[in-house]
Amino acid sequence: MVCVNIDLEEETGNPVVENVRQALLAAGLSDTVVVVDDSVATAATAAAVLGCDVGAIANSLIFECGGEPLLILASGAAKVDAKLVAREHGLPKISRATPEFVLAYTGQPVGGVAPLGHKVHIRTFLDTDLKQYPVLWAGAGSHQAMLSLSYQELLDATGATETAVR
């Protein structure tokens, strides 16, 4: 199944979601943020709510690498092999970040982290498995907000390095 754009309610007033909207516009992209009633904090729930393949969900996963944040944009169908990513890119050990670490660097909660609009610039890697989907969905700063874009738009907007994650 392929994700399609759907008409959902827009959320207004959430400053984190509004920041993500502004980051999309600043990157030269359309504001594609949609808000749903149900939580979309996991790839499986997001895919079910949006009616798309779980693989088309671009999870924004924050890791800690040498004391710094590292963002891996991974297909919802992928289990990230952090050792592989570290080895392929000459990085020190990559470990899962705590929710407090994620919030401190992104300003966004775990389960709602967007690929852009963070408090600081974060080195980013993009899962090449996402190329197969014409429309990707990613978190937009809250557990009820998602944004849609193409693989190329995601690559360009984040300045990510393309990589295999498994």
Runs in which pLDDT lies below 50 for 5 or more consecutive residues are 1-11
**Mind telling me the CATH class?**
Alpha Beta
Classify the secondary structure makeup into a structural class: alpha/beta
Mean pLDDT equals 93
The number of helices is 5
Order of helices and strands: HEHEEHEHEEEHE
How far apart are the termini? 22 Å
Looking at the structure, what is the overall shape?
Answer: globular
Largest sheet: 8 strands, mixed
Name the CATH architecture.
Answer: Alpha-Beta Complex
Counted up, domains total 1
Helix fraction, binned, reads 25-40%
* Gyration radius from CA atoms, angstroms: 14 Å
Under CATH, the topology is which? YbaK protein
Binned strand content:
15-25%
CATH superfamily: YbaK/aminoacyl-tRNA synthetase-associated domain
Number of strands: 8
Characterise the protein shown here:
The protein has a single domain, classed as YbaK protein, CATH 3.90.960. It has 5 helices and 8 strands, in the order αβαββαβαβββαβ. It has helices at residues 15-26, 43-50, 82-89, 99-106, 151-158, and strands at residues 34-35, 57-65, 68-75, 94-96, 123-127, 136-139, 145-149, 161-163. Strands 1, 2, 3, 4, 5, 6, 7 and 8 form an 8-stranded mixed sheet that branches. A hairpin with a 5-residue loop joins strand 6 (136-139) and strand 7.
